[in-house]
């Protein structure tokens, strides 16, 4: 099975030797860089505490709890414990409301199914080139298989494996990067959204790897519909970001790294281990 670099910059076998075999700076254009696949010495083991702490949703609750604890202690010392508890609860509720408004103020008008269908039509045209696609797949987050994560489009093909999320954003707000490490939609920092995409892609790769017995890296990406995107493909926080209408080209211009047998084997493993998010 051919080996090529993934998002963590593994160098492709048979590709020209580069000056440095390391991950490119975040935010660097990567239109021609493939996500890679290759056999691992051993399949990944069960997820540990570090993996769980890497979950963006878990990190948010840890941060929220830490702030609430500080407020509880401070108000309890100055006033009393009851007021401290009340203030801590208000901090948690206020943060939940703030994040909800931030996420929905720009994107409440979004029709996710519409943009997903646009991406689906692009991906369907790649079937004749040996690509297999699974839509709306759940990503289990714990040992009981509970999931609130979803990959809109899991693509397995000659050029690798990709987790693509289709996003509809307000076209009135510009999209920009800052220091090649942050992505903004107008005034809104999309860090959490990128971290969520990367987390789901990495977790999907671990789950599939356990099924097939060798490492299957999954490259996370976000296809954005609505605002103008001033680049072809930009890697920000290990996630590829591009205009929605470039989804097909994003995949087609990458070199072949998987055989037909590899594609089918990974597809079957993904189909069995990543259930439909909305089963019939």
From TrEMBL:
Domain NERD span(s) in chain numbering: 111-231
Parts of the chain that traverse the membrane: 66-93
Keyword set, alphabetical order: Membrane, Transmembrane, Transmembrane helix
Organism domain of life: Bacteria
Skewed-composition ranges (Basic and acidic residues): 23-35
Region (Disordered): 1-52
Biased composition (Polar residues): 1-13
Protein name listed in UniProt: Nuclease-related domain-containing protein
């Amino acid at each position: 099975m051919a080996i090529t670099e993934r998002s963590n910059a593994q160098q492709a076998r048979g590709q020209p030797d580069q000056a440095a075999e390391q991950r490119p700076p975040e935010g660097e254009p990567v239109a021609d860089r493939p996500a890679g696949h290759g056999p691992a010495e051993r399949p990944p083991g069960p997820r540990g505490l570090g993996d769980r702490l890497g979950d963006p949703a878990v990190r948010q609750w840890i941060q929220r709890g830490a702030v609430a604890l500080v407020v509880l202690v401070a108000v309890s010392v100055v006033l009393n414990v009851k007021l401290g508890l009340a203030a801590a609860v208000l901090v948690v509720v206020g943060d939940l409301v703030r994040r909800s408004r931030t996420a929905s103020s720009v994107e409440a008008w979004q029709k996710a199914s519409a943009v997903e269908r646009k991406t689906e039509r692009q991906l369907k045209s790649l079937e004749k080139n040996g690509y297999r696609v699974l839509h709306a797949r759940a990503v289990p987050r714990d040992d009981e298989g509970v999931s609130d994560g979803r990959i809109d489009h899991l693509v397995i093909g000659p050029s690798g494996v990709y987790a693509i999320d289709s996003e509809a954003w307000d076209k009135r707000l510009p999209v920009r990067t800052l220091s090649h490490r942050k992505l903004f939609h107008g005034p809104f920092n999309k860090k959490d959204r990128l971290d969520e995409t990367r987390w789901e892609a990495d977790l999907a790769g671990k789950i599939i790897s356990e099924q097939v017995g060798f490492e299957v890296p999954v490259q996370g990406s976000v296809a954005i519909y609505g605002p103008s995107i001033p680049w072809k493909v930009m890697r920000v926080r290990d996630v590829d970001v591009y205009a929605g209408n470039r989804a097909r080209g994003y995949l087609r211009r990458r070199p072949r790294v998987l055989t037909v047998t590899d594609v089918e084997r990974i597809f079957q493993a993904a189909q069995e281990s990543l259930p439909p998010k909305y089963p019939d």
